[in-house]
């Protein structure tokens, strides 16, 4: 691989500084520079097509759009998907946005004479406890007025734009220490105490409009098409034809027990997409590939390696079967009794399906690249990158290469509770010939 600083490619840091990419801080996101570098390396040109089966906040697709490259993307998280849709639409009617913003200001100002007690009572009726803990009552009241106004907007594009802005500025005005990805409602963030909901929202929307204007100025002449789907990338036969893509650039959920559903809990509760843990489970967790123990119900009979997986991957199956048995025994000796055994099993069953579907979608003589990390649940090392590479070759890819981006996990090395397996983040490249 070229001599470029790739340490941060698996992180969202670059995106946090870049127009449009930065709107929604998605801790699972990767660097747009990594995507662009890959497009160059694969010699993609205007009119080529890339696919991201784990689209997330749309970094691959947005990078493609800035280079005149077409894209496909699939994302299963129902909350994240519309944010990406908004980031890819630069044809927003700015006059209409300003008109609605003006109406929102009037709407909020009309409530100026409502007493603080009444505002508090209204928000308490409207939101679950987590949301109440994260905002001052008056700020939350303003945000509620804005949310409800947006719900009635008829122009779908303007509605999506204004709603995306509202979601994206929530953590900025929250008084809770909403670090990424978790929320600490009992820790107060002093800098947010003086922020007002309406002012912060208007600033955010103005920044979004500036970003769209800037990207239109830089890249508006490039034409490209972007087909994005809210769906499941384990099987896309009904939505993406075979041999569509010149390249796949993606990052699957890592095998590290990160709960994507939990990450968006505050926002989903605020918007009204979910009211409790069960809603998050039904509306999000069940839709995603297995990557967190919170998705696992041990009574479910599905936790077996699939017959196809065993047939296609005899060596990897033997390795994983041992690891799963080991983890099944280890969990009984641990306080948390985490279901890492089924997590590993479910993860590889799912990734196997994804790789097969990805192979189908690629044109001959192309590559698929996966940014991913290995893991060591309860100290049992699972070399995810090598396993994915080998499973890829078992299902038809011609060969693979693994480039290590960085080693991870050193910060825990003094902690006796933690394992001391050195972990790494890599790019796995799979080559498809015919
Ligand atoms: C590591 S993140 C990718 C982030 C993305 N590269 C970005 O920059 O925002 C993995 C994504 O896969 C999504 N995902 C999980 N299971 C999926 C499935 N079955 N089909 C499609 N997407 C899925 C998750 O919701 C998450 O957004």
Can you describe what's shown?
By secondary structure, this protein is an alpha/beta fold. Among the domains are: 1-76 and 238-251, no CATH class; 94-216, no CATH class. The protein is built from 17 helices and 9 strands. Strands 5-2-1-6-7-9-8 form a 7-stranded mixed β-sheet, with helices on both faces. A two-stranded antiparallel ribbon has the order 3-4. The longest helix has 23 residues, at 197-219. The structure holds S-adenosylmethionine (SAM). S-adenosylmethionine (SAM) is lined by residues 26, 28-30, 54, 56-57, 59, 74-77, 80, 232-234, 251, 253, 260, 288-289. S-adenosylmethionine is lined by residues 26, 28-30, 54, 56-57, 59, 74-77, 80, 232-234, 251, 253, 260, 288-289.
Observed structural traits:
single chain, 434 residues, alpha/beta, two-stranded antiparallel ribbon, 45% helix, binds S-adenosylmethionine
Total strands: the figure is: 9
Biggest sheet layout? 7 strands, mixed
| Overall geometric form | globular
How much beta, percentage-wise? 5-15%
Bound molecules: S-adenosylmethionine
Helix content: 40-55%
Oligomer: single chain
Q: Point out poorly predicted stretches.
A: none
Mean pLDDT: 92
Could you give the order of the helices and strands? HHEHEHHHHHHEEHEEHHHHHHEHEE
Record the strand order, biggest sheet.
Answer: 5-2-1-6-7-9-8
* Through-space gap between termini: 24 Å
**Class from secondary-structure proportions:** alpha/beta
SS summary, helix count = 17
